[in-house]
Design a protein that fits this description.
By secondary structure, the protein is of the alpha+beta class. Helix content is 37%, strand content 10%.
Length: 158
C-alpha cells in the first residue's frame, strides 16, 4: 500500500469533504480513530478503488435507473467489482433475484443488502434522494446530486 493510500480517497468535487470531516471528528471522539481525506480526480479514485489501494474510501453509490439490483450488482465481479468483494452466496442470491418476482425478489435483494452490511463491505453514511421530472422530448439533461443541480451543457429538445 502506498503512502498516499493511507489517506481516505474521495472523488474531487463530490461534496463529501464536509461530511467526511464530521465523521472523522465523531470517530476520533468516540472510537479514537483518525483518518485524513484526499480528494483525487475520478480516474485516480476509480483506479485506487479497483486495486484496493485504500483503508477507507468515501464513494458515492447510486442505483442507476432506481434499480436496487443495479446498485447491489456493483459489488459483484460481473457488475464491475466496485470494492473487490467476492462472495459466492451473495452472487448466487443476486443472480436468483433476476428470475424471481414480487416478495421472493424483494426477499433475495434484501438478503443481499443485509449481507453487504453484515460483511462490512459498505456502510451507508447518508442518503440523498431527489426527483426530477422532465418532458419526454428533453434529452441529455444531467442531474448531479453532488455538484450543480442541473447540467444543461448537452441538453437538447427534440
Amino acid at each position: 500500500m502506498s503512502a498516499a493510500s493511507r489517506a481516505t480517497p474521495a472523488p474531487a468535487g463530490c461534496g463529501l469533504n464536509e461530511a467526511a470531516e464530521t465523521i472523522n471528528g465523531a470517530w476520533q471522539k468516540e472510537l479514537s480513530l483518525f483518518f485524513s481525506i484526499e480528494e483525487v480526480d475520478e480516474e485516480t479514485f476509480a483506479k485506487r478503488l479497483a486495486e484496493g489501494d485504500y483503508t477507507i474510501a468515501l464513494a458515492p453509490i447510486s442505483a442507476e435507473g432506481g434499480s436496487v439490483y443495479n446498485m447491489l450488482n456493483q459489488f459483484t465481479a460481473a457488475g464491475g467489482g466496485l470494492t473487490g468483494y467476492a462472495d459466492s452466496l451473495y452472487a448466487t442470491q443476486l443472480q436468483a433475484s433476476t428470475q424471481a418476482t414480487g416478495s421472493s425478489r424483494c426477499r433475495l435483494l434484501g438478503d443481499c443488502e443485509r449481507q453487504l452490511l453484515s460483511d462490512a463491505v459498505v456502510v451507508p453514511l447518508f442518503a440523498q434522494q431527489k426527483r426530477l421530472l422532465i418532458a419526454p422530448d428533453i434529452r441529455n439533461l444531467i442531474f448531479d446530486p453532488f455538484g450543480p443541480v442541473l447540467d444543461l451543457t448537452y441538453t437538447t429538445k427534440e
